[in-house]
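Researcher: Good morning. I'm working through a list of sequences from a screen, and I'd like to move beyond sequence-only analysis. For each chain I'm collecting a predicted structure so we can compare shapes side by side. This is the next one on the list. No need for commentary yet; just the structure.
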Amino acid sequence: MRTRTLDCRLASAWRRSAAAVLAGALPVLSFPAPSLWWFAYIALVPWILLARSAPTGRRAALDGWWGGIGFMVAVHHWLLPSLHVFLFLIAALLGALWLPWGWLVRRFLGGVPSPGRGAAALLVLPSAWLAVELVRSWQGLGGPWGMLGSSQWQVEPALRLASVGGVWLLSFLVVAVNVAVAVPVSVRESRVPALASLVATAAATSAAWVWSPRPSEDGRVRIAVVQPGVVGGGDSGDRRFDREERLTRQLVGQRPDLVVWGESSVGFDLADRPDLSRRIAALSRETGADVLVNVDARRSDRPGIYKSSVLIGPKGPTGARYDKMRLVPFGEYIPARSLLGWATSVGKAAGEDRRRGTEQVVMDVGHGLRLGPMICFETAFPDMSRHLAQDGADVLLGQSSTSTFQRSWAPAQHASLAALRAAETGRPMVHSTLTGISAVYGPDGRRLGPWLGTDASTARVYEVPLAHGITPYVRYGDWPVQGALLVLAALSVAEGARAVRLRRGAPAPHAPHARTVRESPVRHGR
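Model: Good morning. Structure tokens for this chain:
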């Protein structure tokens, strides 16, 4: 009988864990390619309802962990062909970041929450979510891919809010709305306070939207994107260069101010291949514009392989060069290679670590145009584009290649991130790739012209408006994160004080009567 009861409990626990995994995976539908942005505002509700109904705080924390695993696998599922089983190990490790979040859901929403607890949940739970996003945004843990707020990349009011508090503010808002929706769904007595909370959230959001400044256009520039498309085979480096050269030559007469090639568009060190440098310089003379290429090769002037943005003018390389600083874990280097080097045997992990650059660079193209280049998933880091805007960049540029993940959601997700970076900084952003999706966004984050899809092999000129105002996010930085950490610190102090009060108010434990050597055991019933 006991064995049967234990089996039932284990089966129930596993069913609950499976439900948590599925609930945690739901938000992925808010991101491209499905891009159901509106779904983000209810996607967390099942996960919240599951955690709040947990019988214990420990079980609620486990619900948070399993949900975190589901979320991480879902938003990174396109990495499965490259990482194989390692993806699930990474998801299990990073999913643990949601353990406290699950516990806090039950702490503030379990049972019949009072109006005070419900109101506090609207502040505490989004703050705890931001803390999770902050930790996993560290480059060594994979970077800020799949931040919940980035699902709102095509919503104009959300983009305006991003200029105030970055993608962090959007994540906070999305979680707060989910909490406000979950409470009336699960607790009838809390419907009126929850509705009031939704109204208050909408009012505060609307006020921020009205107050936030709009970028004021003060110029225009013509930027050409060259996307060669998929080129395979053993000599793909030379054949890709030939195609890029041919496509760039089609821009002659279209008067671009700048031509941008994608990540790894040149597979040879230009010092070792001066013939390639001369050919690009000839393209610059023919088009009348500098060409920004991306070199992925072993350097001749220092040891190691670098990925570098290199600006080439009519006379050859101008000297402006940016070496990629934040490398993709496992894709471009193996963390703790002595311990995790086995990953190269089960997936497409880096056989040799790339070398890192040391600082961001703003490039002067001439005629008053200053560029802020980023490479690959560096465009996911809001701090990098913010620093480039502070350093005087007029246009943000992302050079990328998602050719390994052509038939997945990765290209669309990557292209969408540039909209957030543009809106946050009030600077236009060009996302140029080898194989799609390439995209261009104005200083307010709205898309300019068509996306160049993964089946396109073309060159296109975009009319890009310029703006030079300073957004609140550029001026004040990640203040939503700092506010969230203050909320969590205040919560820790309050919970500590509450625990002390409970200990002091508890009755003293009953102590047995102390027997002296003169007392007879018989008197005490011994």
